[in-house]
Structure formats: structure tokens, C-alpha cells
Design a protein that fits this description.
Organism: Xiashengella succiniciproducens
InterPro entries: Epimerase_deHydtase, Lipid_A_modif_metabolic_enz, NAD(P)-bd_dom_sf
Shape: globular
Protein name: NAD-dependent epimerase/dehydratase family protein
CATH class of the largest domain: Alpha Beta
Radius of gyration: 19 Å
Strand order of the largest sheet: 3-2-1-4-5-6-11
Strand content: 15-25%
CATH superfamily of the largest domain: NAD(P)-binding Rossmann-like Domain
Number of helices: 11
CATH topology of the largest domain: Rossmann fold
Oligomer: single chain
CATH architecture of the largest domain: 3-Layer(aba) Sandwich
Number of strands: 13
Length: about 300
């Protein structure tokens, strides 16, 4: 069974390739400059912003996984996400390939983030969330029309694997503590905040893609049910790193003000609803259906730090 990963060079794509080896030796990694994860991987160096290249990547595939990540900038997302996913969906339909979309939860906003399940309503409160809702609706409408077999596999913010450059908690907590600096947290350290562990998220995505009964549904990927506050996350990383859990809190107004001068802060400002209230990602559906026990937060942090230390 041919399994194709679109956007295979990121932390999730590479972790997914490793997990898919349990199901197939016919795996194709697609990105601008793909690198082998498994000895038998096939490499397809393609610019996926081009429709013809998406078509080329999907042709002959049984299952197509989308783990691509566009630069974290609203203008880039507006320009790229919907056209890209339209090309992917249309190609999957033409070639009778199943689609597994590794998604985030940006389409769910406001107080709905206090308990995120597969039934949480679309309620975006950010520009990025509006874009992700359009992508999700495109997939769901294609499923409802009977044209496409697909899965929307949702993940919260994450860490682990090779995710340092794309993980907020790695940059603002782990990396800063390792450098002897105080950790940083947004809005409030006393609100709950779920984080996924990349190896578990990848394993869950591989399980879903290779389970026929999982299709045409939304799934929250496996995440430890013990949700920690920002303060507890900082204390956990500090404990594993063997340092003091020093931290500073960046209030909402300061993030917005910094956005006038620092581009990434401008992009983060609209996402503050994920930090100024509890943010709980519930993967009970997955854990129960597959009898899956997610890696505990403590063990995930230990493994992450061990990998960083080589």
C-alpha cells in the first residue's frame, strides 16, 4: 500500500514516516528537499505550491498524509492554505486516494478551547482560525458529498522529536532554561494548557490512516489526559533540566505592543485566547477506541531533553 507524506521534512512528517514503516515499505516523502527516514523511503523533491506537483505526488497513492507547514504568518496562510488543500483534495478524488490531514485546533476559539473534543463547534476568533476552518469545511464537504475518504486528525500545540524550531514551549521554556534564562509564558501561568508529544501524535496519525473504520471522521490525536498549568510545565522542564524554575509572564498588552516592532509577536497576539483561559485538549475518543495510553507529560519531557542532550 503506497503511503505519501506531503510536507515530509518537518518534525511531524519525519516522525510519521518512522511510524508508517510499521504498515508499509512503500512510503514516499514529498517536500522541496526530502530526506530519508527509513531505508526504503522514496524521495520526491517537489514544490507543492504548484498544482501540477501536487497531482504528481498524489498519483498512485493509496493514502496521502498532509503534514505541511507554511510560515507562521497570516498573509502567507491566506495566500497558500486553501489553494493548496483544494489541489490536494481534488487530486485525491481524481486518483481515489484516501486523505489524512494533520490539523491544529485554530478553528476552535474563545471559551470553546476550555474543553476541546471532536464535537467542539467551529468558532474561530483569529484570522488564522478562519483560514483553518475553511480548509476543514472543504474536506468535510467533500466527505459529505461522497467524493472523498478522509480523516481530520487534530493536534494541540506540541513538543518533542525535532520540533524545537516549530514549538512555542520549546523556544520559550525549554531553550531559555537550558541557556540559563528565565522561561517565558503568555498571559497567565495558572491556566491549564494541553501540549501534545510529537511521537504520540505521529503514531496516532499512522494508526488512523491505516484503520479503515476511522475514516470520514474528526479525531483528536492522543495526548496525556493530565493537563498542566503553565507554571507546572515550567517546573517540569526545570526539574528534568536540573535548574530553578525561574520565569516571567508576558501580558496580553505587551505582546500586542511588541507586535508593532517584532513580526512574530504580531502573529502570536491574536492567539492569546489559548493562554488567557484554560485550554484542554481531550483525546478520550482516540484513547478509548484504540486502547491507547499516551506518554505521560513527565516522561515526554524527559525523553525530549534526553534527545536534545544526545
Amino acid at each position: 500500500m503506497k503511503q505519501v507524506i506531503l510536507g515530509a521534512n518537518g518534525s511531524v512528517g519525519r516522525a510519521l514516516a518512522k511510524e508508517l514503516a510499521e504498515y508499509s515499505t512503500d512510503i514516499t516523502l514529498v517536500s522541496r528537499n526530502p530526506q530519508k527516514v527509513n531505508q526504503t523511503d522514496q524521495l520526491a523533491p517537489l514544490d507543492l505550491s504548484l498544482k501540477a506537483n501536487v497531482e504528481k505526488a498524489v498519483e498512485g497513492a493509496d493514502i496521502v498524509y498532509v503534514t505541511i507547514g507554511f510560515p507562521y504568518k497570516t498573509s502567507v496562510w491566506k495566500e497558500n492554505w486553501l489553494p493548496f488543500m483544494t489541489n490536494v483534495v481534488e487530486s485525491c478524488i481524481r486518483h481515489n486516494a484516501k486523505l489524512v490531514f494533520f490539523d491544529n485546533v485554530y478553528a476552535i476559539g474563545g471559551d470553546n478551547v476550555k474543553h476541546i473534543t471532536e464535537l467542539s463547534p467551529f468558532s474561530p476568533t483569529s484570522q488564522k482560525g478562519v483560514i483553518r476552518e475553511k480548509v476543514d469545511q472543504l474536506i468535510l464537504k467533500s466527505i459529505d458529498g461522497g467524493k472523498l475518504k478522509a480523516i481530520i486528525a487534530r493536534a494541540p500545540d506540541f513538543f518533542g522529536g525535532i520540533s524545537s524550531e516549530s514549538s512555542i514551549i520549546m523556544q520559550t521554556v525549554c531553550d531559555r532554561l537550558r541557556q540559563g534564562k528565565p522561561a517565558q509564558w503568555f498571559c497567565s501561568v495558572d491556566k491549564l494548557h494541553s501540549y501534545g508529544y510529537v511521537p504520540d501524535l505521529a503514531k496516532g496519525t499512522a494508526i488512523l490512516g491505516n484503520t479503515e473504520s476511522a475514516y470520514n471522521q474528526i479525531w483528536n490525536l492522543p495526548t496525556d489526559t493530565q493537563t498542566l498549568t503553565g507554571r507546572q510545565w515550567i517546573e517540569l522542564f526545570a526539574k528534568v533540566l536540573g535548574c530553578e524554575p525561574r520565569f516571567s509572564v508576558i501580558p496580553n498588552w505587551q505582546i500586542r505592543a511588541a507586535g508593532l516592532f517584532i513580526p512574530i509577536m504580531k502573529e502570536l497576539a491574536e492567539m492569546n485566547y489559548q493562554y488567557d483561559r484554560d485550554y484542554f485538549f481531550d483525546s478520550t475518543k482516540f484513547n478509548t477506541y484504540f486502547s491507547f495510553q499516551p506518554t505521560t507529560n513527565e516522561q515526554a519531557v524527559k525523553q525530549t531533553v534526553e534527545q536534545l542532550n544526545g
